[in-house]
Amino acid sequence: LNLEMNRLRKLPRSFTECKTLKTILLSKNQLTEIEMFIGKLEKLEYIDASQNFLNLLPGSVPWLKELTHLSINGNAVPCLAFQPILNGHNDSKSCDQIDKESGTETNKLNADGVWQEFTDHKSGRRLYYNRKSGETSSTKPPIFWDKK
């Protein structure tokens, strides 16, 4: 299903009924989240959600057993959002490797280790990712320290 370049801001609920959908192309839209429908499409093998306004990786992605390709480049998804997918895999990449490849930089944690600061090099925006809630904010949370 090709929905590229349609200025979509959200996807209709009817997507959850497409149980046999294997490929969905969502790049170059205005999507801020795709969680609502992704987890219910168990046959998905290929998702391209690049160049949208996503700031979270869908929590259901690790449970999509058929998924072989996920493209989210050009979004502001912080490195730590990838940990549930990468943990336990021999080919796991470090946050530094992911940052380098995706054009982001995760460089600071606050004192309790919940908030992580990262910079999207494409937009130059500095964002903050809450590792507990999955929230991303442009407002700086209290007291940061360098991870080095």
UniProtKB/TrEMBL annotation:
<protein>
    <recommendedName>
        <fullName>Leucine-rich repeat-containing protein 51</fullName>
    </recommendedName>
</protein>
<dbReference type="InterPro" id="IPR050715">
    <property type="entry name" value="LRR-SigEffector_domain"/>
</dbReference>
<dbReference type="InterPro" id="IPR032675">
    <property type="entry name" value="LRR_dom_sf"/>
</dbReference>
